[in-house]
Design goal:
The complex is a heterodimer of chains A (75) and B (492). In chain A, 16% of the residues lie in helices and 43% in strands. Chain A is of the alpha+beta class. In chain A, a hairpin with a 3-residue loop joins strand 1 (5-10) and strand 2 (14-19). With 492 residues, chain B is mostly helical. Chain B has 2 domains: 54-379, Up-down Bundle (Na+/H+ antiporter like fold), CATH 1.20.1530.20; 399-491, Herpes Virus-1. Chain B contains 19 helices and 7 strands. Chain B has a 6-stranded mixed β-sheet. In chain B, a hairpin with a 5-residue loop joins strand 2 (432-435) and strand 3 (441-443). Classes of the chains: A alpha+beta (75), B mainly alpha (492). The A-B interface holds A 1, 3-13, 16, 18-20, 24, 27, 29, 31, 34-35, 39, 41, 43, 45-50, 53 and B 74, 76, 79-80, 82-83, 128, 132, 135-136, 139, 141-142, 146-147, 150-151, 153-154, 260-261, 264, 397-398, 400-405, 460, 478-482, 486, 488-492. The structure holds zinc ion (ZN) (3 copies). Chain B: It is found in: Membrane. Chain B: Belongs to the monovalent cation:proton antiporter 2 (CPA2) transporter (TC 2.A.37) family. Chain B: InterPro entries: Cation/H_exchanger_TM (IPR006153), Na+/solute_symporter_sf (IPR038770), Znf_RING/FYVE/PHD (IPR013083), Znf_UBP (IPR001607).
C-alpha cells in the first residue's frame, strides 16, 4: 500500500481505506465491501459527518478509477 | 397437494413490493416478508393466497439452510480472531446481558422451561443483516464505534451456532435427563467433527464441488449443503447448524468468493420464502394476548442493549455518542429470532411463542432504525462518570477513526497547568489543550483567546488533546472531528 493510505478492517463488511490527500479542506475514505460494492466517503474540513457518500458497483468503480488514473481513452 | 402457483406467486410479489416500500423509509426487509405472510395467510381475515403453509415447507427449509450456509461462508474468521480480547469481552457482555435477561424474562412469563430458552435466544441475538444495513445507510462506516459494533454482531453469529447446538437437543423431546445429556454431547461432538473438517478437510470438500462452470458449481454446492443439513437433522443436530458449518468449511477453500456470489440470490429468494411461510402460520388474532409481554420484552431489550453499549463504550474509550450508537444499532432483531421461533413451532412448544416473537420482531424492526438514527438524544443524558474519560464538551460528537494525521503525533503527555500566552497578556482561560505534534499548550475555543487553534493556524499541527483532569480525547482541526486510533488497524 502506498504512503498516506490507511487501512481499517470492517468485520463482515470489508475494508476501509482512508486517503491522506495532503489537503486541509478535503479528505476521502473508500470502503471496499466484500460483494464488490464501493462506498466513497467524502469529508469536508470541520465536519465530523461525511458531506457525501457515493455508492458504486465494481464496474462503475472501475470506470471512475480508470478516469482518475488517466488510463481511460475514448476512441 | 401442490401449492397453488397463482397464490404463491402473488404472495411473493406482494411481499417484495411491501419490502420495497419499506426500504424507501429505510426499514429492514425481513419483517415485511413476514408481514405479507401474516396478512395474506389463513390465520388472518381477508384474502388468503396460500391456505396450506405446510405445502411450502420444503422451500422454507431451503431458505433457512441457505441463510445459515451463507452466514458460514462469509464468516470473517481472521478479522474476528485478529481483533483482540477486548472485543470478546464486549461481545461476551452483550450476549450475556441480552440472553441472560431474555432467559429470566422467559421464565417470568411462565410458559415453560424450553420456551424460556427459545425466548432467550430470540430476544438476545441481534440480526447481523439489519445492523450492517443500518451502518451503511446511516453513513457510519468511518465512526470509531463501527468496528466494535461489527465485531459484536459477528461474534453473536458464532454464539448462535453454539446456542442452536444446545437448543436442538433440548427441543428434540428427549425422554430422560440421561438421554438429554447424551444428545447435547452428540450435538457438540458433531460440531467438533465439522470444525475439524473445516480445519483439515476443506481442500477435499472443495474438490467434491469444484467446477469451472458457475452453473455446475451452484448445483453441486446446493446439493452438498442440503445433504449435510439433512444428515445433521437426522443425527438430531439441527439442519441450521449443519448448513452453517458446511459454510465455514467452504469458506476455507479457494471457491469461497465464487460460492459467496452464487449463493447470494438463491439465499435472498428462499430466505424471503422462509420468512413468508413463518408469517403464514401466524394467526393475527393471537397478537392481542401477547401484546403486553411483547411491549415489556421490547423495553427490556432496549435497556439491556443500552447497558451493553455503555460497557462496550467503557472498554473501547468511546464517548456518549459512540456508546449510544453501539447500544441502539445492535438493537435490530430479525432472521435469527424467526429461526428460533420456527424451531419452537416445529417442536410443538407453547402456541404463543410464534405470535410473540413475530410481533416482537415487527415492533423492533420499526423502532430500532428510529432509535439508532436519534442516538444523539440518548448521548445527551448519559452521565460522564459511566464512561472512562470525561467527555463534557464532546459527548454528542462523532468520533472518527478515519483521521490520516495520526502519524503526526510525537508527544502525548504534559504537566503544564497554564496557557503561557494568556499568562503573558494577563488574560483568563477556561480549559487547556495540548498540541500532539510539538507539545505546545494553549487555551480552548471557549476561552477569549483560543490560543490552541491559533497555534494550529500558525504551524499546521493538526491534532490536540484535552489537558483537563481525566480527559484524554483527541481532536483533529483538519478533519474537524474527534479522532482516535482505529482498533486492529494496519497503518502504513
Ligand atoms: Zn486528521
Ligand atoms: Zn504544535
Ligand atoms: Zn491562551
Amino acid at each position: 500500500m502506498g504512503k498516506g493510505i490507511y487501512v481499517q478492517e470492517l468485520p463482515g463488511i470489508g475494508k476501509r481505506y482512508d486517503v491522506d490527500l495532503g489537503s486541509n479542506t478535503q479528505r476521502i475514505s473508500v470502503v471496499v465491501r466484500r460483494d464488490g460494492t464501493r462506498d466513497l466517503y467524502v469529508f469536508a474540513a470541520g465536519k465530523d459527518d461525511p458531506v457525501a457518500v457515493i455508492e458504486m458497483s465494481e464496474e462503475q468503480a472501475r470506470k471512475v478509477g480508470a478516469l482518475l488514473a488517466g488510463t481511460y481513452f475514448s476512441e | 397437494m401442490h401449492a397453488d402457483l397463482v397464490g404463491f406467486g402473488a404472495l411473493v410479489l406482494i411481499a417484495g413490493l411491501l419490502a420495497r416500500a419499506g426500504r424507501r423509509i429505510n426499514l429492514p426487509t425481513v419483517p415485511f416478508f413476514m408481514l405479507a405472510g401474516i396478512l395474506l395467510g389463513p390465520g388472518t381475515p381477508g384474502p388468503v393466497l396460500v391456505a396450506h403453509p405446510e405445502d411450502l415447507s420444503l422451500l422454507a427449509s431451503l431458505g433457512l439452510i441457505l441463510l445459515l450456509f451463507h452466514l458460514g461462508v462469509e464468516f470473517p474468521v481472521d478479522q474476528v480472531l485478529g481483533s483482540g480480547k477486548r472485543l470478546f469481552v464486549a461481545a461476551g457482555s452483550y450476549i450475556g446481558l441480552n440472553v441472560g435477561a431474555g432467559l429470566l424474562f422467559g421464565f417470568a412469563l411462565g410458559w415453560g422451561g424450553y420456551e424460556a430458552f427459545v425466548i432467550a435466544g430470540a430476544l438476545g441475538i441481534s440480526s447481523s443483516a439489519i445492523v450492517t444495513k443500518l451502518l451503511i445507510e446511516f453513513r457510519r462506516l468511518a465512526n470509531a464505534e463501527t468496528p466494535v459494533i461489527l465485531g459484536i454482531i459477528v461474534i453473536e453469529d458464532l454464539f448462535l451456532a453454539l446456542y442452536l447446538a444446545l437448543l436442538s437437543p433440548l427441543l428434540s423431546g428427549a425422554g430422560s435427563a440421561g438421554e438429554l445429556v447424551l444428545r447435547i454431547g452428540l450435538s457438540f461432538a458433531y460440531l467438533v467433527v465439522l470444525f475439524a473438517v473445516a480445519r483439515f478437510g476443506a481442500r477435499l470438500v472443495g474438490k467434491v464441488i469444484d467446477s469451472n462452470e458457475d452453473e455446475l458449481l451452484a448445483i453441486l454446492m446446493v446439493g452438498l449443503v442440503v445433504l449435510v443439513a439433512g444428515v445433521s437433522a437426522e443425527i438430531g443436530v439441527s439442519d441450521a447448524i449443519g448448513a452453517l458449518m458446511i459454510g465455514l468449511v467452504i469458506a476455507r477453500t479457494p471457491l469461497r468468493e465464487r460460492v459467496e456470489r452464487l449463493v447470494l440470490p438463491l439465499r435472498d429468494v428462499f430466505a424471503a420464502v422462509f420468512f413468508l411461510v413463518f408469517g403464514l402460520t401466524i394467526d393475527v388474532g393471537d397478537f392481542g394476548s401477547v401484546a403486553l409481554p411483547v411491549l415489556l420484552a421490547v423495553l427490556m431489550t432496549v435497556v439491556t442493549n443500552v447497558v451493553a453499549g455503555l460497557i462496550a463504550g467503557r472498554l473501547f474509550g468511546l464517548n456518549q455518542r459512540g456508546a449510544a450508537n453501539v447500544g441502539l444499532t445492535v438493537l435490530g432483531r430479525g432472521e435469527f429470532s424467526l429461526i428460533l421461533a420456527t424451531l419452537a413451532i416445529a417442536a410443538g412448544l407453547d402456541d404463543r411463542l410464534g405470535p410473540f416473537i413475530a410481533l416482537y420482531v415487527l415492533v423492533l424492526a420499526v423502532t430500532s432504525p428510529l432509535l439508532a438514527a436519534n442516538s444523539r438524544y440518548l448521548a445527551r443524558i448519559i452521565p460522564d462518570r459511566l464512561l472512562h474519560a470525561s467527555w463534557r464538551y464532546v459527548r454528542e460528537e462523532t468520533i472518527s477513526t478515519a483521521c490520516t494525521h495520526l502519524d503526526r503525533i510525537n508527544i502525548t503527555e504534559s504537566d503544564a497547568d497554564a496557557c503561557p500566552q494568556c499568562v503573558d497578556s494577563g488574560d483568563d482561560w477556561v480549559q487547556l489543550r495540548m498540541c500532539l505534534t510539538c507539545g505546545a499548550v494553549g487555551c480552548c475555543s471557549d476561552s477569549v483567546n483560543n490560543h490552541a487553534e491559533e497555534h494550529y493556524r500558525q504551524t499546521g499541527h493538526p491534532l490536540i488533546r484535552s489537558l483537563e483532569e481525566g480527559e484524554d480525547w483527541r481532536y483533529c482541526y483538519i478533519d474537524g472531528a474527534l479522532v482516535r486510533e482505529p482498533m486492529g488497524a494496519t497503518r502504513e
